[in-house]
Amino acid sequence: MTLSEPDFPDTVAVRMTCDSDVELARLLATHAGVILLRLRTRKPMPASRLKADGDRRSHDFLTAALAKLRPADAVLSEEGADDAARLSARRVWIVDPLDGTREYSELDRDDWAIHVALWEDGELVAGAVALPGLGPTLTSEQPPQLRPAAAKPRILVSRSRPPAYAEAVAEKLGAELLPMGSAGAKAMAVVRGQAEAYLHDGGQYEWDSAAPVVVARGAGLHTSRVDGSPLSYNNPNPYQPDLLICRPELATPILSAIAASK
Ligand SMILES: Nc1ncnc2c1ncn2[C@@H]1O[C@H](COP(=O)(O)O)[C@@H](OP(=O)(O)O)[C@H]1O
Ligand SMILES: [Mg+2]
Questions:
Q1: N or C: the chain end with fewer CB closer than 10 Å?
Q2: Do the domain assignments include residue 145?
Q3: pLDDT in tens, 132-184
């Protein structure tokens, strides 16, 4: 695969400044965001085409850049064929080239994201989530300081597929549910103090949560499955159907409410 002309100079710039894995994650996610913003604003096209082109272009950029800049590492991407070599690799980049694909194709929405995470020797060690519609790319190393929590907890859920028990959990906690697209956008809204929790159940894959989770951990948030068990990455089957990211003081109350509501 070759890099397209407008992308190549940026990749050269990345190569000159990318000794740090977290900095590389930040630069790649941010640049993929530029590619996606450009595609979205350049000329009108049907939503189905925009989604397909966005997924493909961002994936092509990320995988070509990683092949060039980290040739010894494996990659697990939502948009690529899964290569079993990742199961014996020490370092695996877990990427979602466009999370919130549906929202990306709705031109007035900004709840979509690019996820770049690095798994090394059994753990997520670095990552970045770009939010091109909103501006910032957040990383596991320099997340913003957590703001004070709202008195009435705000729990983010999928716009299209909220957990069946979400209403019951919210009622038990005296919380409100806020629908939003994209796992990365929801997780970063918790990091940025716009909500207290993100709850998902019913289906998801490792690339949907790897980068959001490592950034959220860097910010001091709780991350787990909805039964409280640890999240684990680079598994033979990357299906990981549920997720809780929340302020640490809400972990026990939310997990108890989930257990009582499921
Ligand atoms: N039930 C389900 N099964 C598989 N993937 C799901 C899912 N619910 C949500 N997801 C994925 O999780 C991400 C966030 O979803 P949502 O916006 O609904 O919260 C989306 O990723 P992509 O946009 O990368 O496909 C979506 O496809
Ligand atoms: Mg996704």
A1: N
A2: no
A3: 999 889 999 988 888 889 999 999 999 999 999 999 999 999 999 999 999 99
